[in-house]
């Protein structure tokens, strides 16, 4: 188990960072939507990983269960999921976050251009969020996932299906989910083309 006092302090920092991140993202998006008269975000979900889940991740990495390892090796203790309507919106939002100057970008993974072998598709940003702690600035890591509505539907369904199996999912079902993922990608591209065509008519 994690040392109680240290864990409480770390969790309080994560709570502060999550609230800070939510407010900063909301301001960025609201300002963008005001200037462009366009709703770029459909909805946002956020969470802080539970102690049980964090310990499980450390065990899977074969690391000692310590607060230090939790901070260093569990990169998604804070998770923000942002869902957009169209593919172009995802990349527009990624650039908006990266160019805001409000966060330090640690790493990014484009699983849209290069999906995971499971078929998972999304755009991930690992960032550092500034918080004030004991009269100085500290940085807390968070993960932002940005995806379309279609991608979010697939990811949610895939998670629920995999949760049903105590062991690895059967290969034939794995293949079916991969086919569904490919269909989702094609659908997103078609919807983007339709949206672009409608914009031209409006112009």
Descriptive report:
With 203 residues, the chain is an alpha+beta fold. The chain has a single domain, classed as 2-Layer Sandwich (Beta Polymerase, domain 2), CATH 3.30.460. Helices cover 54% and strands 22% of the residues. It is built from six helices and five strands, in the order αβααβαβββαα. β4 and β5 form a beta hairpin. The chain is flat, with a radius of gyration of 19 Å.
Question: Which features does this protein show?
Answer:
single chain, 203 residues, alpha+beta, Beta Polymerase, domain 2, five-stranded mixed β-sheet, 6 helices, 5 strands
Q: Could you say what the CATH architecture is?
A: 2-Layer Sandwich
Strand content: 15-25%
CATH C-level = Alpha Beta
Class based on secondary structure composition and strand pairing: alpha+beta
CATH superfamily: Beta Polymerase, domain 2
Give, in order, the helices and strands: HEHHEHEEEHH
Helix proportion range = 40-55%
Integer-rounded radius of gyration: 19 Å
Strand order of the largest sheet: 1-2-5-4-3
What is the CATH topology assignment?
A: Beta Polymerase, domain 2
Number of helices: 6
The average pLDDT is 92
Report the principal-axis shape.
flat
Uncertain stretches: none
């Amino acid at each position: 188990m994690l040392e109680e006092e240290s864990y409480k302090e770390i969790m309080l920092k994560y709570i502060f960072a999550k609230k800070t991140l939510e407010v900063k993202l909301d301001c960025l998006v609201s300002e963008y939507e005001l200037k462009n008269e366009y709703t770029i975000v459909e909805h946002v979900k956020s969470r802080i990983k539970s102690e049980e889940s964090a310990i499980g991740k450390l065990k899977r990495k074969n690391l000692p269960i310590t607060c230090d390892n939790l901070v260093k090796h569990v990169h998604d203790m804070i998770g923000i999921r942002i869902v957009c309507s169209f593919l172009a919106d995802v990349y527009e939002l990624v650039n908006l976050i990266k160019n805001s100057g409000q966060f330090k970008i640690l790493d990014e993974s484009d699983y849209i251009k290069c999906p995971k072998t499971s078929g998972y598709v999304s755009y991930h940003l690992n960032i550092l969020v500034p918080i004030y702690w004991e009269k100085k600035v500290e940085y807390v890591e968070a993960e932002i996932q940005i995806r379309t509505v279609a991608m979010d539907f697939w990811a949610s369904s895939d998670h629920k299906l995999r949760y049903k199996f105590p062991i690895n999912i059967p290969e034939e079902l794995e293949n079916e989910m991969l086919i569904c993922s490919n269909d989702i990608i094609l659908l997103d591209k078609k919807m983007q083309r339709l949206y672009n065509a409608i914009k031209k008519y409006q112009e």
